[in-house]
Design a protein that fits this description.
Blueprint (H helix, E strand, L loop, with lengths): L1 H12 L16 E13 L2 E13 L4 E14 L16 E13 L5 E12 L4 E11 L7 E10 L4 E14 L3 E14 L5 E13 L4 E10 L4 E13 L1
Antiparallel strand pairs: 1-2, 1-12, 2-3, 3-4, 4-5, 5-6, 6-7, 7-8, 8-9, 9-10, 10-11, 11-12
């Protein structure tokens, strides 16, 4: 999930360090708001996703997270079986997803977000999700980020996830340019076997605006596909 990646890269860009005191509350408390939008498309299926995430620090290791997302799924004339609604025959589905959980930051450059929630609207699936991001070789010229997400939908039994490997190719006082690759994998429920796709990606992080823009494209079980994601983070102290 691009939201977790953005939270981690913001801390790196601001040279923040994690406080390891488990029983010491953060003062002043950090509050973060991240807005995000994602568009996906292939020859038979498309989706849009948008929403926001709220983060409240507790101590140097744990924070509270709440996320609200709105989805629209558009299916082509043949009908591609999406991970979210593999048995649906409708052309368009609209639903929301509300989640809450913990953000665990054991040390600088690493984040694990654990979420639970449920869909509303055209879907009513209880969902659990885990988002992980970790930077390697942070003190070198080209550090590398490895991140992945995983979600399980209890209504239809589908498990899906994304994976990304990116390197910081160029870093200036104004922006960070990233190159790498990633994709998605899903299966379970009424789907036959495990499906996946992947390809190269490029991203740019604008330091002044805490704005992350990423583009990915490739090929796989969904044939040729493309993804564009945009996220913007705001930070406050109380």
């Amino acid at each position: 999930m691009t939201v977790v990646f953005l939270s981690v890269i913001v801390s790196l860009a601001s040279d923040a360090t994690a406080n390891s005191h488990l029983f010491e509350l953060v003062s002043p408390a950090h509050v973060g708001v991240t807005l995000f939008a994602i568009g996906y498309g292939n020859e038979k299926y498309g989706s849009t996703q948008g929403g926001f995430q709220l983060e409240q620090s507790v101590n140097g290791l744990f924070g509270l997270v709440g996320r609200a997302s709105a989805y629209q799924i558009l299916k082509g004339t043949i009908g591609y079986d999406s991970p979210l609604s593999p048995s649906s025959k409708s052309a368009t589905r609209n639903f929301g997803l509300f989640q809450g959980g913990l953000d665990i930051t054991p040390f600088q450059g690493t984040s694990l977000v654990l979420l639970g929630g449920e869909d509303v609207g055209d879907a009513h699936a209880p969902v659990i999700e885990g988002d992980f991001s970790d930077w390697f070789a942070m003190h070198t010229t080209h550090p590398v980020d490895v991140s992945f997400t995983g979600s399980h939908y209890y209504q239809n039994g589908v498990t899906s996830g994304t994976y990304d490997v990116r390197t910081m190719a160029i870093s200036t006082k104004n922006f960070i340019l990233l190159f790498g690759g990633g994709g998605a994998i899903w299966g379970g429920g009424s789907l036959e076997g495990v499906l996946a796709h992947g390809g190269p990606e490029v991203g740019i992080f604008l330091r002044q605006y805490h704005l992350d823009i990423e583009i990915q494209g490739g090929y796989g079980s969904a044939h040729t596909y493309g993804v564009v994601s945009v996220s913007r983070q705001f930070n406050f102290e109380e």
